[in-house]
């Protein structure tokens, strides 16, 4: 599996390095229950979170590896369950799926860091609850450390 992945996504030596970090800034009404990432159409990270389990860290690495230099597409899909506590308990019956993709370029000999920020967009009074989950992709490149 490792050799196949290295052949498809990049080589084990040289090339370029890609680090993908997820940062969760969603409001208290949303509990993440499943997250998955695809790089160039191939799943590189998936996690299902069980109810009652302690929440995931607000920031976590979801991918760290070598890739081929050039253009790549990172796709993310997150399923949230409503978490209204006792005040808005009707939220608990809702699930929301948010998806996004971002195209970026990786340069040979460099480390590219993509931070995916999950956040709540819009105005709580004017934006529907199901339309609030959103993503922001921040891409930074630096010379690859040996």
In short, what is this structure?
The chain has a single domain (15-140), classed as Immunoglobulin-like (Sandwich).
How would you portray this structure in words?
This protein is mainly β and 146 residues long. It has a single domain (15-140), classed as Immunoglobulin-like. Helices cover 5% and strands 57% of the residues. The strands form two sheets. Strands 4-1-7-8 form a four-stranded mixed β-sheet. Strands 3-2-5-6 form a four-stranded antiparallel β-sheet, with no helix packed on it. Residues 1-12 have low confidence and may be disordered.
Strand order of the largest sheet: 4-1-7-8
* CATH architecture descriptor name: Sandwich
Can you tell me the CATH topology? Immunoglobulin-like
Question: What percentage of amino acids are in beta strands?
Answer: over 45%
- Number of distinct helices: 1
Computed structural class:
mainly beta
Model regions low in confidence, pLDDT < 50 over at least 5 residues:
1-12
Q: What's the order of the H and E elements?
A: HEEEEEEEE
Helix content: under 10%
What is the average of the pLDDT values?
Answer: 82
Please count the beta strands (DSSP E, at least 2 residues each): 8
